[in-house]
Records
---
Amino acid sequence: MGLFGKRKIEGDELLTYLDYIGEEWKLRAFQEKEANLYTEALDSYKPQKGTKDVEGLKDLYVAANRLAQSAVELLRRKDALKSVPDKATSLFFAWHAAYTDYLGWVVAQVDAIEAKIAGEAPDAAKVEGLRTKSEGSSAEAESEQQKLLKQLGLTQGDIDQLHDRATQAAAEDRWRPRTVTYKPKKELPRR
């Protein structure tokens, strides 16, 4: 490489980047933990064919609302990150966009479940469009992350250790959402 080639990041500067990546990965582990709880609720929702399982939908609504609260908490924690190293700013903003898109998708899911409970047709196209947008912005953030990891020259052992710490931090996280019960926006007509 020439005189103006990429300078290797090392020493205290490398530690700063590792701390930042560790914080980003804690956020991802938190998101994954909460998403898994929602997936479990979704998997256990088994409506009977030809019937309207309002009670099951209400349970699913509570789980989706928790997921929405966790997405808001995720963005709050993201915004609370104190320092972002220079070469990680594009990664920071890529994850911020991904989490913002994720929140939009999750809120649309809550609205769709609420519509089903009320006996209305959910806006499936909106939910699907926001899901696609969220997945796209997450893929862009993953790409930015890979670029930074490559630039840092981390070994697989380093990456595994950072990942294990983030997973452990998420497992020990004691965040609790507000308790939510389903309260319809409008009463269903009585029969």
Note: Helices lie at 11-44, 54-79, 89-117, 124-152, 156-172.
---
Amino acid sequence: MEGMAKENAGDYFVQLRTGWLALVRGEYAKSSAYYQKATLIAPNAIEPRLGQIRALMGMGQYKQSEIAIKALLKLDSKNYYARSSLAYGYYASGSYAEAEKIYDGIVSDYPADTEMQIGLGWSLLKSGKKPRAKEIFTRLIKIVPYEERVTSGLHYSGK
């Protein structure tokens, strides 16, 4: 597919598909480059930006992914994947207060999303806000009682 991508440098779909194939093979740097080419071809398209975020996150490049996410959010301010990736990136890099803000906004939009609630709970816990974290984990333990992140979160929040 890479040969086809070189031969069709101006073809959005070919660049996008080559980026996806590199992503699933774990070739994150190549994937990011192809998604960047697709973005240059179609600057308002959301899908190559999402792919590039996945590639950057796969490489652990949280600062670069933050830049890509913020550019995407200018086009689509409520994009779930972008917002959840930004929250995770902040959390993974130790910016717990920033992660909390993003997770909190997502949970407001998707109150039944247990993954985002878990992220919010852990962000609160890491920020030292144990009482609010405990509220979240106490509610979650009823919904997902065998989820290790919930049971350990409840434990560390002062069960």
Note: Residues 96-159 form one domain.
---
Amino acid sequence: MKSSDLNGYIERGLDADLARWFPDAAKVQVAATVQPVGPFLQTLPTRASSALRELDEKVRSGTMPSVWLLEMVGDASYGFDFVAKGAKVLDEEQDNIAKNVWSLGCDGRGNYYVLKQDGRVATWYPTDGDKLDANAQFASLDAFMWAKVRRAAVNAKKLTQAELDADLASLADPGVASLFSKSKSES
């Protein structure tokens, strides 16, 4: 499996995975005042734009199970407006790219997952110099969602990590590898 094999996961696989592993999970609730995604969609490559558009529709519908980002329910991390809040998001060159990222949610420890304009997903560490993690970025939003759902399934003991090991090894995606190495160390 390659990261490109996950293209279209949000449109074609996410709902089925959530229904299979989390049929009774609470639903994502975001504030009606979350900034509109439309302007950011226009800045993305086509594949990333399609994935975020589909995800945004699912998130705002109120019907999507919250397990994809367990920490998201009831908070304002989805669509967080870094610019309006005066936050810095520093890339590898230490440039502030706050206007060039879309917040997907928080990891429960105050760090945010963000979609960058190049279509990759990174973790932003506000307590560690406002920096993006340059070493463990997901190849795409589809790869990020695939991994987050599977990690949630592993954590809920609905799937074993051993069942995923072959896919994880062949993906060679730094973000996915980091997410699952954290999962093993937290077990």
Note: The chain has one domain: 3-175.
---
Amino acid sequence: MLKPLIALTTALSIFVCALASTASAATVERMDLDELVQRSDAVVVAQVADVQTELDERGRVMSIVELRVRESLKGPATQTIKIRQIGGAHGNIVTRVPGMPSFQVADQGVLFLSGDVELRPAAVTGLAQGYFRVALGPDNATEFAIPQINSMNLVVRERTQPTPGTSQLRSVSAADLHLQVHELDAFKAQIRALVDSQAREEQ
């Protein structure tokens, strides 16, 4: 029962960090594969079918990305999913948020998503940490998942002593997950194994 609230709180905290960042980099909590799977309500391999933009009540550009799902690795089996995120171009108005993933029609990727993907637009977990673009390798046959992180100041939260219950943020380098290209079939197998393991722990 608490999972939707936890997911929403996590998404909001990441979003606030992004907006509070400098013009050149977003400050985001670093995630490895286990954390991405744990904090995501859905993980899919999908293709971008459409990208639309609109203005929110504050005059910021919001992008609505429609995904055509190739394969669901976690979460409900659904054919299409929408993402709504700040950023993009709408007429002469442009809004940019460092660290936010960008999408073009026909892009394919592995996406870690937070939110009720069946009922409302989702968010990419951990900003660009939750998006791996899928592309063919040199043999034009093998697919690879390619990290898309950029302009991000990654941090971890550490407990401070001697005061209990308090913590501070420390800047760190990207997780190994985001420093290498992954063969897609092996990457999907890793994700499925984590999904199964985490499901058993929750039983």
Note: The CA atoms of residues 157 and 163 lie 15 Å apart.
